[in-house]
Design a protein that fits this description.
The chain is of the alpha/beta class and 205 residues long. It is built from eleven helices and seven strands. The protein folds into two domains: 125 residues, Rossmann fold, CATH 3.40.50.1000; 64 residues, Putative phosphatase, domain 2 (DNA polymerase, domain 1). Strands 5-4-1-6-7 form a five-stranded parallel β-sheet, with helices on both faces. It has a two-stranded antiparallel ribbon with strand order 2-3. Helix 3 packs antiparallel against helix 4. The longest helix is centred in the N-terminal third of the chain and has 12 residues. The protein starts with 6 loop residues before the first strand and ends with a helix. The relative contact order is 0.17.
Length: 205
């Protein structure tokens, strides 16, 4: 019997792209009486952001509510531009992604994110095209570490849970994956993660 194909599953933020909401908060503060720290609190892992990342708010609804909470007097376009311009690539991880693609390794992007960020990322970063499938929180109305989202991600790959390796910077997201029978790496830095992925790829399932 032929061994089942393995898939490598990548988180996006803090794995392939660094991001900093302080950048967005500083840009928005130019249109608000609030200081950047207060604005960042309204964005960074806030209940409002999580609603947006679950797809429960449209872009207009999210930016309207954010404007109200932070007393921002700016157009939706200006606010969106500030909100998404926070990402910088992690070259070593993207280089590794490219090498895996050259080896025809199937890969899934599995991220808690929102439509504004993804539209920006798809325009700015070509490596997104390397993924065979994308499981994005806002498209399914739920977020990691909710177990049902892991089921959807697995279904996208068409393989068993044991054939999946997930790389994520948040321990709770990896623990949820392991509960499903996936392998997992809590990402801290590329120097540690990349050899761990290679070891897993060389192991029998």
């Amino acid at each position: 019997m032929r061994a089942e194909v393995k898939w490598v599953v990548f988180d996006l933020g803090k794995v392939l792209l660094e991001f900093d909401f302080a950048i967005a908060a500083k840009a928005m503060a130019a249109y608000s009486p609030l200081d950047p720290c207060k604005i960042q609190q309204a964005i960074d892992q806030s209940a409002l952001l999580h609603q947006f990342e679950r797809g429960l708010l449209t872009e207009t609804q999210f930016f309207t509510q954010l404007s109200q909470v932070c007393q921002i007097k700016a157009s939706e376009e200006t606010l969106r531009d500030a909100f998404v311009d926070i990402f910088t690539p992690v070259p070593s991880m993207i280089g590794f992604l490219t090498k895996l693609k050259a080896r025809r390794m199937p890969m899934l992007l599995f991220s808690n994110t929102n439509i504004s960020a993804m539209c920006h990322i798809r325009k700015q970063f070509e490596f997104i095209q390397l993924f065979d499938q994308c499981c994005l929180s806002y498209e399914h109305g739920m977020m990691k570490p909710e177990q049902a989202l892991y089921d959807i991600a697995r279904q996208m790959t068409g393989v068993n849970h044991a054939s999946l390796l997930f790389i994520d910077d948040r321990k709770e997201n990896i623990e949820a994956a392991r509960q499903k029978g996936w392998s997992g790496i809590v990402h801290e830095n590329p120097r540690a993660t990349i050899p761990e992925v290679e070891r897993w790829l060389n192991q029998a399932i």
